[in-house]
Amino acid sequence: MLNPIYAIKQLYHLxxxxxxxxxxxxxxxxxxEKQSGIELPPLLYHYLLELGNGEFNTSYxxxxxxxxxxxVDYIVIGKTCDNDGVWGIHxxxxxxxxxxxxxxxxxxxxxxxxxxxxxxxDELPLAEFLLAQAIxxxxxxxxxxxxxxxxxxxxxxxxxxxQKLESLASEIIELRQPHERYYQADDFGVVMLLGMDESIPxxxxxxxxxEYKFNDYIHQLAIGFEH
Length: 227
What we know:
Elements: H1 4-11, H2 16-22, H3 26-36, H4 42-51, E1 62-63, E2 69-71, E3 74-79, E4 86-90, E5 103-107, E6 121-125, H5 126-142, E7 145-150, H6 161-168, E8 170-171, E9 180-185, E10 190-197, E11 200-208, H7 211-221
């Protein structure tokens, strides 16, 4: 299983001092557990203790905000930036005795009047979801240096970009989605997100906390970006 806490600390250059500043106290987390009548999976519990107040949780998507909201049989742990969707974990999957890495699911009709009509579909297991959100939020402004390029004409992004990335970075296979591929380089010193329409790239984002590494990979990629 991935260790998202380690990867996120590397990505955002967080040291022990930062951890004390951005973590949520044990008393607060356990108080919310008690009020909600839930027991968090150990991974989510420790994420809150170490990274729960990090600005990167809300720099794009709104992720991990206390108190926990409950939507029928789900605990909501995040919302999309446009409030068009929510992510949650089914209460039956919360117990650590059942799931060490429970599936995070998404609903895009969570505001349906009839609760029985709310539909959920699998997103990623919790560990993978935590890291994916940190990367998505990072390339959308959470990291100090970031750039994006979108392909509206079929020629802006080289069609062989995925192959080129293989020589520059490592794909995080566990995070792969039908239309998204995630990459990291230099032990999470730089992250990249490639949007795909079938096998054709249609969006590319890159980000880092390190200006030198960011500029170095921009130079190696040799494609135009909007900063």
